[in-house]
Write a structure and sequence with these properties.
By secondary structure, this protein is mainly α. 45% of the residues lie in helices and 2% in strands. It is built from 15 helices and two strands. The chain has a two-stranded antiparallel sheet with strand order 1-2. Helix 4 packs across helix 7 (151-161) and helix 9 (184-194) crosses helix 14 (290-299).
Length: 331
């Protein structure tokens, strides 16, 4: 049975995550960018907070008056109205967000709660040494990136590693695949189709990282009616040869560098642009696996699609994955 007290939000006495507060702010905002200003605000909020008040006080701007320090050492930042801070009494209604604060739970926190307890302990070590500001930032906390690859993969790695303790840097040295510029949430579907407990060693090979990035590129191009003018037809044929079973010629380093550079931004195919304007339900509403729907939306740029069309795309992807698996001899 999972231990509900070991959470991503408050993992230990040294740090907490307060990235979700306030729940409405500019895209890409992180508290770490304004650390000195936010620290002063937290101190002021903590000093002025009274638990006896019950009046509604709306949030103004991008700072909540109830966000403060939760401990006397000023390490843990969080909601002063949360029931955990008020003997079980939930006072979050006072910020007048109509229940949004009560509902707020990021995708990473939800996924983390599904991990086995030993796996949670294993992965939290990636954040050892971070303070609450760095821990709350997606750009500074590598654990957020890893969770994007999915709980299935994280459970497998943690189980195989047993009691090993990794920092973020030592983990990347051991598993160079995860230094890829590919977006985890966009490509978790592909990776989880390939990796099993029996072939997890592939994640330790830098060569597999390059091959997987090429696979992601080829699949995106296959669903596009446009040719990428930055890559000529000869290298394109070599990449497709990897998937077709034809022994490929050595891939030029310049092509790999060019490919990796483009992978930092999710590819948007012409297919995706066309289907975005088509009829049909929004992709995220289809009754299919969540990671597959994320791949359609985030990697291929598809917004709307009928279920039968999505299943057809899925069938083609599974064929390419099987071909790719055979090419790696990783059955």
């Amino acid at each position: 049975m999972l231990n509900p007290s070991l959470t991503l939000c408050a993992p230990d006495e040294q740090k907490s995550c307060f990235a979700c507060c306030p729940p409405i702010r500019p895209a890409g905002y992180e508290h770490l960018q304004y650390k000195n200003i936010i620290r002063r605000i937290l101190l002021e909020n903590t000093a002025s907070f009274t638990r006896e008040g019950r009046a509604l006080i709306p949030i103004t701007g991008f700072s909540c008056w109830a966000l403060g320090y939760l401990d006397k050492n000023f390490r843990l930042a969080g909601c002063l109205l949360h029931p955990c801070q008020n003997q079980g009494l939930d006072l979050r209604y006072r910020v007048d967000y109509d229940g949004k604060c009560q509902r707020e739970s990021c995708p990473e926190a939800q996924a983390f709660s599904q991990l086995a307890v030993p796996a949670r302990i294993f992965w939290l070590h990636l954040a050892d040494g971070l303070d609450s500001f760095s821990y709350s930032g997606r750009s500074s906390n590598f654990l957020f990136t890893m969770i994007g690859w999915g709980t299935q993969l994280l459970d497998v790695i943690a189980s195989r590693e047993g009691g090993m303790i990794y920092t973020a840097k030592s983990f990347l040295r051991a598993y160079p695949f995860f230094s890829t510029p590919l977006s985890p949430r966009s490509h978790a579907y592909l990776l989880n189709l390939l990796i099993t407990p029996e072939n997890m060693h592939l994640l330790r090979r830098a060569s597999f990282k390059a091959r997987f990035e090429d696979l992601a590129q080829v699949l995106s191009e296959e669903f596009s009616q446009d040719l990428d003018h930055q890559t000529d037809e000869a290298p394109r044929s070599e990449l497709r040869g990897i998937l077709s079973g034809i022994p490929p010629k050595p891939c030029p380093p310049s092509l790999l560098r060019a490919t990796a550079g483009r992978l930092a931004i999710p590819l948007r195919s012409k297919l995706g642009s066309t289907l975005a304007k088509a009829n049909g339900p929004y992709v995220h509403q289809l009754p299919l696996e969540r990671d597959f729907l994320d791949y359609l939306r985030l990697a291929l740029g598809v917004r709307r699609m009928y279920e039968e069309h999505a299943l057809a795309v899925k069938g083609k992807i599974l064929e390419r994955i099987e071909e790719f698996r055979r090419s790696l001899h990783c059955r």
